[in-house]
Amino acid sequence: MVELEEDHGYRGTAAARAAGISYRQLDYWARTGLVEPTVRGASGSGTQRLYGFRDILVLKLVKRLLDTGISLQQIRTAVNQLRESGVNDLAQTTLMSDGASVYLCTSNDEVIDLVSRGQGVFGIAVGKVLREVESSLVELDATPAADPRDELAARRSSRAS
User: Fold this and answer.
1) In this structure, how many other beta carbons lie within 10 angstroms of the beta carbon of residue 139?
2) Burial class (CB in 10 A: 0-12, 13-18, 19+), 75
3) What pLDDT does 1 receive?
4) Which phi-psi region, left, alpha or beta, contains residue 44 (left: φ > 0; alpha: ψ -120 to 50)?
5) Strand partners, 143
C-alpha cells in the first residue's frame, strides 16, 4: 500500500488523474461535500486542496458507481458508509447494487446472501480498486500540507521579499 505521512497528500490534478475523473468533477464533488479532501481543504484564493489515499479511492469508487447508473443520492449514502469503515476493512469490501440501492458487503456470506435473494445486479470489489489507485499513485509525488499556499503564491511572496 502507498505509504503516506498524515500531513502529505495529492493535489487536485493528481487526485483527479489517479481517480480517472476530470478536475471539474473533482471540484464539484468537493464543493457539494460528496468527497472532500481530508489532508487539506481549500481555504481561499491561492490554496490547494490536498487529497489523501483514501479520498482518491472514494473518488474512483464514486466514478465507478456513476458509470453504472447509480443515482447521486444513493452514491452519497454509499460514501457515508465508506467513511465509517477503515482502509483495512475496505480491502475486504464489495459494493453491491440492485440498481436502486448500494450495499456494503464485508464478507463473502453477505455477497452470497444478497445475490441469492436476487438483489445483486453488480458488484465492485473495493480491494481491486484500491490496488488500481495504489499503482496509479506510485508515479505521482505527494505534497506536504505544512505550507497552505500553492506554488504561484510561494513565488509571489519570494519575489516580494
Assistant:
1) 8
2) buried
3) 47
4) left
5) 9
Single out the residue of 103, 100, 9, 16 nearest to residue 60, CA to CA: 16
What is the SS3 assignment for 146? coil
Kindly state the helix (H) or strand (E) to which residue 61 belongs, with its residue range: helix 53-67
Cell of 153: 503564491
106 and 93 in contact (C-beta within 8 Å)?
yes
The pTM for the full model equals 0.75
Rounded mean pLDDT of 48-70?
A: 89
Q: How many CB atoms lie within 10 A of CB 155?
A: 11
Tell me the C-alpha to C-alpha distance, in Å, between residue 119 and each of 8, 64, 99, 122, 126: 40, 19, 9, 9, 19
* All cell numbers assigned to 47: 490554496
Mean pLDDT of the chain: 79
- List the one residue out of 76, 111, 73 whose CA is nearest residue 95: 111
